[in-house]
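For the sake of transparency, this paper describes our internal protein records without simplification. The tokens are whole numbers drawn from a learned vocabulary of local backbone shapes. One such record is reproduced below, unchanged from the form in which we store it.

. . .
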Amino acid sequence: MAQTSSANAAQLIVDNDFEVAKVDKRLFGSFVEHLGRCVYTGIYEPGHPTADADGFRGDVIDLVRELGVTTVRYPGGNFVSGYRWEDGVGPKDQRPRRLDMAWHCTETNQFGLHEMAKWIDKVGDNELMEAVNLGTRGLEDAMDLLEYANIPGGTELSEKRRANGADKPFDIRMWCLGNEMDGPWQLGHKSAEDYGTLARSVAAGMRQMDSDLQLVVCGSSSHAMSTFGEWEQTVLGKAYDLVDFVSCHAYYQPFDGDMASFLASGVDMDGFIRDVAASIDATKARLKSKHDVFISFDEWNVWYAGQEPSKLPEGIGNWPVAPHLLEDVYSVADAVVVGDLMITLLKNADRVHAASLAQLVNVIAPIMTEPGGPAWRQTIFYPFSITARLAKGGTVIEPKLSSTQVRTPKFGEVDGVNAVAVRGADGSVSVFVVNRSLSEPAKFEVRLPAEMRDNPNLDVQALTLHDDDINARNTRNDQNRVTPQDNKTVTIFPKSGMVKITLPAVSWTAIHVK
């Protein structure tokens, strides 16, 4: 709902009678790909001062726990479309080095499925989301990997896993059927018809071995793909009753200096989700199915694709190991956009039951590391970690938001303030809110549920991520340049159940009332 006042202002009404959905724990997933330094000198660096006996960096594990990640998608990404999973198991001195066609690098295979499973166990409160190669491989290899990972014992592959050090199965529940198979850049790229047929075959075969799997079929790799919509219709038409999720991928960056549209990136993500949900609903109706398919938004972030950090090695003799790739250094504005995208995911919690911030360490990531040196939080770390901490286990309340508008070249008039409320299991209310205006602070009011009014014991806390320099960043030499700060303008009026706060321009804020 738009407001006509010239002042930048917004109001959110929180009414417990109107719920969107429970917040699925998997909404706070992340992504580890064999790309650049995400694995090597990221999560895995034998010899690092904080490394344990398995070579896992302890400082990174501590930050991942603080981040609040609940699932990790692995091993790709584009990488998986040429990956031979068996290269990454067994004695490390016998693992082959391979060329990685996706990122023009050499993969040493010193880190594989066993290491990933062990790392996830050490992080705790997490699960592995495994992707299978449907680029250069198919049904037989997917079933081999499933047998190796999930069958307790008594077969050649399950016994090989046990011999390789994992007596108990990994028991992986969530599997991705390939990656971005609609993209012409993808090794083994397929048409929607061919991929849909293959995905159905692989899904059926995997379910014959383990009927309790949750499978993710590839949707479009971008809302802007020329095949978007038609791809979903074709693929879901073939595989609908055998899969549980369809994927969405989206990355955002400012183009031609258009910061206003960039700050409103959540508008595009919301439209993407709604369009894919419509395809799901249309397929379900056409097939007269009683089965539900949800969205796995398993790649999303700000990514400055095409700029210097994303330029790949070139040349037939140049295949480096774990080079610096896609190491974007994020600004305050980037963090506000990430916060806005998280708000959008929560608003759509009835349709989006899984999501993965891409990626986790070094590669377009909330966590950065120096080989042999420290690890630190990027600006985007904070909206993710605080939202995860406050929203896990909660219920999204239907947003009744009225806001003044801001003008954007790409999306036209949009809400200057975007917000969502989550009721915690303990009855508390958390509100996540961004001010998209480039220049004006916003007066923001939250009307609390009737159950919380006239309570003199209510307490409110507010953390705001903001800097007068929207390009401010955290770096190796200034790791805490940007951190959330207490917003001292927040005021609560217990009798009326009203919270009032001033939101600086280009800011993200978390308000917690209990």
Q: What stands out?
A: The CA atoms of residues 78 and 102 lie 6 Å apart. The longest helix spans residues 265-287. The chain has ten helices and 26 strands.
